[in-house]
Amino acid sequence: MKLKNTDELNALKIQNLVLLENRRVPNNSANTSESQDRPRHVMVCGGTGCHASNSPEIAKLLIQELQRRGLSDKVQVLQTGCFGFCEKGPILEIHPDNVLYVEVSTEDVADIVEEHFIQGKLVERLLYIDPNTEKRFASDLPFYHSQLRIALRNCSYIAPEDIREYIAADGYQALSKVLFNMSPTSVIEEIKKSGLRGRGGGGFPTGTKWELTRQNEAKQRYIICNADEGDPGAFMDRSILEGDPHSVLEAMLIAGSSIGASHGFIYIRAEYPLAIHRLEIAIKQARQYGLLGEKILGSEFCFDVEIKYGAGAFVCGEETALIHSIEGTRGEPSVKPPFPAQQGLWGKPTCVNNVETLANIPPIILKGADWYAGIGTEKSKGTKVFALAGKVNNVGLVEVPMGTTLRKIIFDIGGGIKRHKSFKAAQTGGPSGGCIPAKHLDTPIDYESLIAIGSMMGSGGLIVMDEGDCMVNIAKFFLEFTVDESCGRCTACRVGTKRLHEILTKITEGKGALDDLDKLEKLCKTIKVSSLCGLGQSAPNPILSTIEYFRDEYLAHIVDKTCPAGVCKSLLRYHITDKCKGCTLCAKHCPAGCITGSTKDRHIIDQERCLKCGACMEKCHFGAISHH
Amino acid sequence: MCDNPSTDHLFQQLDDYIDSLPYKKEDLIVILHQAQALFGYLPDKVQWHIAQKLDIPSAKVYGVVSFYSFFTMKPRGKHVANVCMGTACFVRGSEKLQAEVEKQLGIKTGQTTTDHLFSLDSVRCIGACGLAPVMTVDGKVYGRLNDPKEVEHILATYETENQISETVVH
Q1: Which of residues 109-148 of B touch A (CB under 8 A)?
Q2: Closest Cα to residue A132, out of A445, A415, A507, A408?
């Protein structure tokens, strides 16, 4: 059915409100007698993380079990997008009971049906237990306190493969408002006023980008959605596309009508098969409902979207490289200007926006720029989604107002450091960002404050590191990444990053000299100013920030030839302590044959020949081998 | 594989696919995705065929193939294992996992076993950071792999299973 006008869209919305009715009751007291008789919705997380831990199978078994127990008409099972709480997946939530079960496995299905739906009580063992307080939660988890979900508003709330659910949740209302009640320039003004800035990393004001694209005279203009989420450790774009693909399509339509583009492209990584699948379904449904195609909702506006696939190149996240990749060539960046807004795809004015940026557009149009600008800090408005990962208790997606402190994100929402170890650093901005030490935990984070402390927002990857992580090794890891991903076009990046990596390798192998630190800093500065694109310009950041905040650790590697975190293999020295019983097991397993000693006597490791493989330590039954 | 006359039908399928596309030269990347899905890899002969079909220099095709890490010019094993080397997996021990998989398969990352059963590669984040460290086999994700026994168990299921490896097909 094609929607011919706004009235039909509104009628469809009203008709489908029933789909979400049960999910709207925020009920803190689980399983009250009142909610017993109401039809239930079981929302099973279908994001990539939970998908990988068998959530589709869990959903299938739930449906079968409910059928077997004659409950099919009372309980409906739905697959949603990411809940954000990836650490405890697979997750399922039951509405309107407001109960969240975590780490559910296929074996739990029968108990959930029996205990929750038939006996009407909670399945205690599947409730979330706070690792710090050991308190159990059925709802209102600490993880969700302090979060404000705007870009992620529909993820886990609606079933992403059903356009009717999106429409019931105010979907395409912003488009309708833009097409019939606003002029293109007033839409752009509204976005400018909201203060929304590019969430892919650049932080360029979105409204201004739209305006610049619109200003350039051309018969054809393009809008591109950048879904080439290359920053390792960031997965918000993937989750939005998996959990709420229509919000991105709607925003592209709004952008298209505002800048005067009739064609849009979504450039997505081939590594995201589930996001591609959901996006394809969404595009198909939007076409069926006449929300993509000719004369949308009876207006004069025509627009269609096409998916383009990446092929594994980090640099293609840079907009000019991305455009070249869509054109079917090597994804090498080009010099700006001309900016894509002037000459982009096939020489036409082009606006490239990131997925998360786009997901913010419909709420801004519906609720107004003032509402959005009221959230966040002076220069960074709204919310930001962070992919919280690494050595933190609650790995997941977190959406917070700009200006929230790292402490709040890592300790309140993230539940602190795993295994009660101590916090060492937080890495933001991926390979282009830096490492932030404990002394900056209370900095309210936004675009500007992160740059001021030597890091950057990037796309929002936030990797937490503990005392067991070696900062020199982390810097080396990121340089390995940039060396690998440098497209090779400009010398500063191609050769410079390689030299940086060599020096870091030397240091981690215990062959560093004191002047290496100066060499690193000098070369970093040269690469920053002379590289062609953002990849090279920001590649030295991980080194510069770790030298600034963890200079001691570099010095330990260079001067003392030790790795304080015990990570750099070449700097480890294995010793056999007096706990040794002389069992000879270590000597038998040593691949270098460098352990000597007779039965029942303490053994000795020949340091000259030791390969530092750790086989002896692994095999020892008496804990007699230590390393430092 | 490509010198075998039995690949004629694959070239035919590739040609049919190219003919079905609205654009031609602009779709080089998607054509290469399709070709790799059909042939398993992109040897010279396939690249040359595509260049002729699209009427572009074969150097341009080679330039694109060698630029993107997703494309391979070497034949791959029946099953492709990828260890995630994203930052989140890295800090949760993916180096150890990589070493373990290399040890168990007896090959280095980027190589294929002599029986052509497994190829081993690394990927930059598949976005399943909650399950770190992670590896995938033929696109299926396995998480929280801290125990060598689990790796052994996973690889064993593919050694016995007689299924054809799949590349992402679009």
Answers
A1: 123-132, 134, 139-143
A2: A415
